[in-house]
Amino acid sequence: MFYFCSPIQYNKVMDLSIKVKDYSEVYVGSVAELLPRLLPERRIIVISDTNIDRYYHSLLESFDHILIGLGESSKTLLTIDNIYRRLIELGADRSTFILGIGGGIVTDIAGFAAATYMRGLEFGFISTTLLGQVDASVGGKNGVNVDGYKNMVGTFRQPRFVICDVNLLRTLPVREFRSGLAEVVKSGIIADKELFEMLEKADFTTLQRDTALLQQIVYRAISVKASIVERDECEAGDRRLLNLGHTLAHAIEKSSSKMNHGEAVAVGLSLISDIAVKGGLLAQGDNERIQNLLQRMGFSSEPPVAKSQMLKAIAKDKKAEGDAIYVVFPKALGECVVERLPLAEFKTLV
Ligand SMILES: NC(=O)c1ccc[n+]([C@@H]2O[C@H](COP(=O)([O-])OP(=O)(O)OC[C@H]3O[C@@H](n4cnc5c(N)ncnc54)[C@H](O)[C@@H]3O)[C@@H](O)[C@H]2O)c1
User: Fold this and answer.
1) Average pLDDT over residues 10-26
2) Is 187 among the domain residues?
3) Same domain flag for 192 and 217
4) 102 Cα to the center of ligand 1, angstroms
5) Which helix or strand (DSSP H or E) is residue 58 part of?
6) Which domain holds residue 250?
7) For residue 180, how far is its CA from the centre of ligand 1 (angstroms)?
């Protein structure tokens, strides 16, 4: 059942929309009913997953749709190949508009398939997970994993629109909702101390259904990402800030399937904050606030694999450039710095 949410004021929607790179518009709030207005009057093909089909079948059935499997193991070139074949079968041409409906896995795949099929179709997203809304669906990066290495192949291409309706998050399993909170904490540490403080005051037992608070939190987290993408779309500089905690998180995900992306990010944030304190960059008081918040959200701070295994994976991180790697360190709540370090030196810090 797809929830068409209570009517909202046009102005209110406008207040909670964020423009990215003059092309992409992100709408936050109870905004699902905007969809008909945003879709172009052209052929629409939806890419989604089997869970979304289960929860929101009535939305999917009004379009030709392609369903992908669940989990990181679906985020492969094989899935992309299957999507190309289905698009050909469905007669998709250069004027077809792709609508990705789902979490980060769906939007990464739908964006990549759309960006490459016939050298690129227009696309938009309805983002249905917290992690997707505050991170994966916004900013124009898409792609798939290769041989277990995360996001090795992909493109930078902005979606026409992203709908982030926080009411959709109600059907999300609690573990997935919490996973998205790790990326919200990341946004707070990178550039929004007030967001971090809102989280410190939040009641995580009720947040998933607290539309008003969620709307603010999602909006602020997206704003952090959007302003960074605005300055550096292709990750030549400031966009690296968004990788706070992610070098370690990707190493965890590469070495173990025990944690989902957000859980691995939470461990990454916890470890990198400890490292920043040891290196004299971050005050212990700020580190304690980060550790306490992550713990109160229910995250573990322990990697599920031996550090030696993580270190091997770090060497193969796609962000590594030869023998060096860009690492993001927190300096304070709302302030981070990117350092280019020799890989060998970073390994001694972990
Ligand atoms: N492109 C980027 O900039 C970027 C940024 C961050 C993360 N990512 C990627 O995002 C992916 C993780 O995304 P995710 O955490 O959203 O995982 P996901 O897409 O696997 O979704 C999590 C689970 O929730 C289900 N689900 C989704 N929406 C639902 C809803 N409303 N109700 C019930 N169930 C729902 C999904 O079917 C899935 O089983 C990773 O592959 C990561 O690399 C990409």
Assistant:
1) 72
2) yes
3) yes
4) 7
5) helix 57-60
6) 174-350
7) 9
Distance 260 CA to ligand 1 centre (A): 10
Choose one of 70, 112, 129, 172 to mutate for the ligand 1 pocket test, by most ligand atoms within 8 angstroms of C-beta. 129
What is the DSSP code (8-state) at residue 158? -
152 lies in the same domain as 256:
no
Of the listed ranges 28-42, 181-195, 214-228, the least confidently predicted one is: 28-42
Q: Are residues 189 and 107 in the same domain?
A: no
Shortest-distance Cα residue to atom 11 of ligand 1: 104
Q: Which helix (H) or strand (E) holds 225?
A: helix 211-231
Query: What is the count of structural domains for the chain?
Result: 2
Q: In terms of domains, do 190 and 152 share one?
A: no
77 Cα to the center of ligand 1, angstroms: 18
Per-residue model confidence as pLDDT tens digits over 70-119? 998 999 999 999 999 999 999 999 999 999 999 999 999 999 999 999 99
DSSP E strands: which ranges in 76-204? 97-102, 123-127, 144-146, 149-153, 161-165
Residue nearest to atom 39 of ligand 1 (CA): 70
At residue 4, the pLDDT reads 32
Q: Which of 172, 193, 226 is the last residue of a domain?
A: 172
Q: Tokens at residue 209, please?
A: 């259904």
Beta strands in 74-229 (DSSP E): 97-102, 123-127, 144-146, 149-153, 161-165
User: Which of 46, 152, 261 for a ligand 1 pocket mutation test, highest count of atoms within 8 Å of Cβ?
Assistant: 261
Residues with a CB atom less than 6 Å from ligand 1: 49, 51-52, 55, 70, 72, 75, 102-106, 108, 128-129, 131-132, 135-136, 139, 141-142, 150-151, 168, 171-172, 176, 179, 261
> With 70 as the cut, is the pLDDT of residue 9 above it?
no
Percent over 90 (pLDDT), the chain: 75
Whether residues 212 and 138 share a domain: the answer is: no
Q: 155 and 185 in one domain?
A: no
CA distance 205 to 221: 20
Q: What is the pLDDT of residue 41?
A: 94
Mean pLDDT of the 274-298 span: 97
Q: What is the mean pLDDT of the chain?
A: 91
pLDDT of residue 12: 46
> Is 291 within 8 Å of 269 (Cβ atoms)?
no
Residue whose entry in the numeric block shows the structure tokens 């304690």: 288
More confident residue, 34 or 68: 68
